[in-house]
Specification:
Order of helices and strands: HHEHEHEHHEHEHEHHEEHH
Helix content: 25-40%
Number of domains: 1
Mean pLDDT: 94
CATH superfamily: Thiamin diphosphate (ThDP)-binding fold, Pyr/PP domains
Low-confidence stretches: none
Bound molecules: thiamine diphosphate, iron/sulfur cluster, magnesium ion
Strand content: 5-15%
Radius of gyration: 19 Å
Shape: globular
CATH topology: Rossmann fold
Strand order of the largest sheet: 2-1-3-4-6-5-7-8
Number of helices: 12
CATH architecture: 3-Layer(aba) Sandwich
Largest sheet: 8 strands, mixed
Distance between the termini: 48 Å
CATH class: Alpha Beta
Number of strands: 8
Structural class: alpha/beta
């Protein structure tokens, strides 16, 4: 091994230092983005993490079924309304007890962006020492594919169907990642499954940052069943989301935002939507609304990323 390569992580496999704690077969749809993400996290962060999360597509696997478990991790199931509050208690308890580990609060967009946003925001503001990961499949998938705050304009869900009275969601999505970065926490970032090295680096940075307080990852995790695309296209959907700037990759360290992947010539959003049935009914004018929203968010991100300055936060209180 050359001196340069010694101890240096040069490819994604170098980051997978721990065993996959999940059983070979798990109760996810084939091709589910969430499964890839869940298997990846402990292989990078280690199997001593404690995961806590809420009712969702992840719950049947993380909670187990009957008296059997699908994995060898520690998991604490909690309510959608109080996920980050419960994670706060766990992280504070371990800190007080002198137990060194990493609490990962792992939730869908329904909990993170909507039902459990209040206490997520509170935990971020208090700078609690844990990692919050939101896997964003843009809807309430587990209960039958209802719209959430991160469902994009035009997408069909069971509560925003396509028909005579409705043409999919007629509102724009919220930008959860930026909203969390605005809490000026030690670490906030976006990531997805087509860029695994980027994701691995961000997981490790989040682990390091949680020694100083709150770390948040917003992970784009497509849902083959709810969105209507071929299961083998999960990674391609992620790739095109990045190439069109539909889901840009960035990080904010102590509030200072920088792009981790710059797309030099972003493709039109239709190269992304053409893969996915939930957008199939959109005409040119509808697609333009979606494109304008993407352009607006990118403009905002670009503006924020040229700002100088950062803010170091004090470590959270012990009580
Ligand atoms: C307070 C509350 N409201 C509604 C529900 C019903 N419920 C269970 S799972 C779920 C969907 C969760 O969506 P998300 O967090 O995005 O996870 P996903 O199912 O997409 O993986 C809902 C609404 C609940 N458990 N608690
Ligand atoms: S419904 Fe979607 S998110 Fe849920 S397990 Fe199936 S593919 Fe995964
Ligand atoms: Mg969801």
């Amino acid at each position: 091994m050359t001196e340069k390569k010694k101890g240096k992580l040069t490819k994604v496999l170098d980051y997978l230092k721990h065993e996959d704690p999940f059983s070979k077969g798990v109760a996810f749809c084939p091709g589910c983005g969430l499964e890839l993400l869940l298997r990846f996290i402990p292989q990078v962060l280690g199997n001593d993490i404690v995961i806590t999360g809420t009712p969702s597509c992840s719950a049947p696997v993380l909670l187990g079924q009957n008296n059997q478990s699908w994995h060898t991790l520690s998991y604490f199931g909690t309510l959608m309304t109080g996920a980050a509050a419960n994670a706060t208690g766990l992280a504070r308890y371990y800190k007080k007890a002198g137990i060194k580990n990493t609490v990962v609060c792992f939730n869908g967009d329904g909990t993170a962006a909507d039902i459990g946003f209040g206490n997520l925001s509170g935990a971020a503001e208090r700078n609690e020492p844990f990692i919050y990961i939101c896997y964003d499949n843009e809807g309430y998938m587990n209960t039958g594919i209802q719209k959430s705050g991160t469902t994009p304009f035009g997408a069909t869900t069971t509560t925003t169907p396509f028909g005579t009275a409705s043409k999919g969601k007629n509102l724009r999505r919220m930008n959860l990642g930026l909203k969390m970065a605005m809490h000026k926490i030690p670490y906030a970032a976006t990531a997805t499954l087509s860029d695994l090295e980027d994701l691995a680096k961000k997981l490790l940075k989040a682990k390091e940052a949680k020694e100083r307080g709150f770390a948040f990852l917003h992970v784009f995790a497509p849902c083959t069943t709810g969105w209507g695309y071929a299961p083998e296209n999960t990674i391609e959907v992620c790739r095109r989301a990045v190439k069109t700037n539909y889901f840009p990759l960035w990080e904010a360290v102590n509030g200072k935002i920088r792009m981790t992947k710059t797309v030099k010539k972003p493709q039109h959003v239709s190269t992304y939507t053409e893969l996915i049935k939930k957008f199939a009914h959109l005409n040119e004018a509808d697609l333009q609304i979606l494109q304008d929203d993407i352009d607006y968010e990118c403009c905002m991100l670009g503006g924020l990323s040229v700002l100088e300055g950062e803010c170091q936060l004090p470590v959270s209180s012990e009580d």
